[in-house]
Amino acid sequence: MRVIAQAGAYHVADGATYAEHLRVPCLSLGTYSLPAGAHDPQQPHTEDEIYIVLDGRGRLWTPDEVVDVARGSVVFVPAGEEHRFVDIAQDLTVLVVFGPAEGTATPR
């Protein structure tokens, strides 16, 4: 067992910030922090993702859909799907779970 005490802590130095807290072969976990009004620069990943919004408010965009997200939102994004947070109205703090670990999957 491992307690991941720092997971979910909002931290922004200058713009969007991702802090990885755990990496094992089958998954990785990190906190993604985006200040209000920020641009989300992320590109599609080769891994499936689950976003768990801990705080803040904005929208999650994909080419086919845009959904409002706020505290308590849980969203699945399949590997390879273009996506990004937009219209960030309040600082966002998001737990991100990658399966398998980020950067380890072969592109589909």
UniProtKB/TrEMBL annotation:
Q: Where does the record place the Cupin type-2 domain? A: 32-97
Q: Pfam families from the entry?
A: Cupin_2 (PF07883)
Under the heading Gene3D superfamilies, the entry gives: Jelly Rolls
**InterPro entries recorded for this chain?**
Cupin_2 (IPR013096), GPI/OXD (IPR051610), RmlC-like_jellyroll (IPR014710), RmlC_Cupin_sf (IPR011051)
Is Nucleotidyltransferase there in the keyword field? Answer: no
Record's keyword terms, sorted: Metal-binding
Name under which the protein is recorded: Cupin domain-containing protein
Instruction: Please report the organism this UniProt entry assigns to the protein.
Output: Micromonospora sonneratiae
